[in-house]
Amino acid sequence: MTGADSLQAALIAARCVHFAAVSVMAGAPAMARLAGPGATDGDGDGRRVGWLVAAVVALASGAAWVAAEAGQMSGDPADALRPSAIGDVLAHTSVGHVWIVRFAVLMVGLALGLWPQGRRWLSARAAVGLAAAASLAWAGHGAADEGVRGWIHVLADAAHLAAAGLWLGALPVLLVLAFGPPPRAARALAAFSGVGPALVAVLVATGLVNGWLLVGWGPLAALAGSPYVRLLAIKLVLFAGMLALAALNRLRLTAAVAREAEAALPALRASLAIETALGLAVLAVVAALGVTAPPTSF
Ligand code: HEM
Q: Would you say 90 and 103 are in contact if contact means Cβ atoms under 8 Å apart?
């Protein structure tokens, strides 16, 4: 494996961890807020520490992401470990300026996580998490276009990232609740079932916009040969799996848990655990997708 290959692998790993951390920062407090006081009272500090860990992981993986990009931009992988080269990227490139703003948002997140407070700060945490997730649009392919096309792309990407964060970040909270008192789990599931379809609709609509701008409508045979399109196809298969489990939770298991908790909870736990694992797999695929040249760039 060459230095450039290891750097690419390190960049993809940092992107994947970062996507997961900002998803938790956005979705976990939003889900706790949505589930209502009855569903999450009594574990405020556990929740705050979990969010604090997500903020620290987002900061560390963000730093690794920028460092790896510094090595890729200069063509010398060793620059990924040179503070001066990383400083140059932050100070003298547009993506560097985006990261300076993003690091500031994550630092606000860190402060919010360090400072003990009650439920009323859940919205503030969710807002910081959403800003951290959506602002990634300016660090990806979405920022490559200009003019009206550029605005359509970056705003679609920002909405895509926000919806992805809210869905994936809510799953760990639902999974923890599925191991608690059944009435709380049923209440939280019912609350999430109210917003889940809207998140899916935003993801599909903005995903199609991204797909149109990055893949285009070329002949299928030519597109099938593109590594980018193959990665996107894998992502859509994983997404279909998540959708099927989300539908099972919404249409079957939510009512079953409310009706006959002991019998239904094991199935719910398994479904949520698999949905979360598929969500992490989607993030691993988009971590590679975002650094792969899309067909329209040719
Ligand atoms: C659970 C569902 C989904 C999650 C968690 C998810 C997550 C993401 C993330 C994190 C990115 C940003 C990548 C980057 O900035 O580099 C992204 C980009 C993208 N997503 Fe999704 N997405 C989901 C569903 C979809 C669907 C349903 C479609 C298509 C209909 C789609 C199409 C795309 C495309 C084309 C991009 C652009 C990638 C690029 O910048 O090159 N996604 N997605």
A: no
The amino acid that residue 147 corresponds to is G
Burial class of 91 by CB neighbour count within 10 A (0 to 12, 13 to 18, 19+): exposed
- State how far the Cα of 59 lies from the Cα of 63, in Å rounded to an integer: 6
Sign of CA dihedral 233, 237, 242, 248: positive
pTM of the complete model: 0.94
Boundaries of domain holding 239: 3-297
**Can you read off the two tokens belonging to residue 2?**
């060459």
Within 8 A by CB and 6+ apart from 147, the residues are none
Mean pLDDT in consecutive groups of 10 residues from the start of the chain, 298 residues: 92 98 96 77 69 96 97 94 96 96 95 74 92 94 87 96 97 92 88 94 96 81 85 97 95 86 89 98 97 78
127 residue type, one letter: A
Ligand 1 binding pocket (C-beta < 6 A) is 19, 136, 140-142, 160-161, 164, 167-168, 203-204, 207-208, 210-211, 214, 232, 239, 242, 279, 282, 286, 289-290, 294
Among candidates 123, 214, 106, which has minimal Cα distance to 160?
Answer: 214
How many domains does the chain contain in total?
A: 1
- Nearest in space to 291 (alpha carbons), one of 3, 1, 4: 4
